[in-house]
Amino acid sequence: MATYLIVGGSSGLGFAIASFVIRTDGKAIIVSRTKPPAPPIGKGTLAWYHCDLRSPDSLNSFLDAFGEEPIDYLIYCAGIWDESADKHEVDVERIYGVMSVNLSGFVSIALAMRRSLLSSPRRPLIVGIGSISGLPNSGSLRPAYCASKAGMR
After folding, report:
1. Residue 26 in contact with residue 6, Cβ under 8 Å?
2. Which pLDDT band, with edges at 50, 70 and 90, does 84 fall under?
3. For range 52-58, the mean pLDDT
4. I need a surface site. Which of 1, 10, 41, 134 has the fewest CB within 10 A?
């Protein structure tokens, strides 16, 4: 049974991936700030850890609770954007939050999970989900979001 650590797995693409893992006899470990909905029926298993990636204390608490359990695949699909940019406002706290979730969290968790990944009996893999907004000339008016997603490339 393959073990997937899915960061940002309580909704959207992350929950779709977790659902697929459960249906195909895998182990999905979701890390998110909100509890995921009930998983689909399948032969696999689901575990959930609370973590708000905007908070270093929350991230450290998750890492302490998780320990060094072996994982085969790390899938990072957490992401938020700066809604204040639509109003042409500058909300520094929100900008820091976007960068923390979309980029710093990815780097922090990838580094922290090294031992868990290297203890996998399979060939471990890290997948970071980006966005076309991180590409040059994307036309987006959300600079923090674009910068954070460009940093994942």
Report:
1. no
2. low
3. 95
4. 41
For residues 7 and 124, what is the distance between their CA atoms, to the nearest angstrom?
A: 16
What are the φ/ψ torsions at residue 109 (nearest 5 degrees)? -70, -40
Buried b (16+ CB within 10 A) or exposed e, 75-86: bbbbbbbbebbe
Gap between the Cα atoms of 18 and 27, Å rounded: 8
This prediction's pTM: 0.91
Q: How many helices (H) and strands (E) does the chain have?
A: 6, 5
Q: Residue 88 corresponds to which tokens in the numbers above?
A: 């042409």
Mind listing the pLDDT tens digit for each residue in 89-102?
A: 778 888 899 999 99
| H-helix segments, 75-142 | 92-99, 105-112, 114-118
17, 46, 87, 91, 153 from 11: Cα distances, Å: 10, 14, 26, 25, 23
Q: How many Å apart are CA 32 and CA 86, to the nearest integer?
A: 25
The pair of structure tokens assigned to 109 is 């968790």
Whether residue 32 has pLDDT greater than 70: yes
Give the pair of three-digit tokens for residue 105: 């969290």
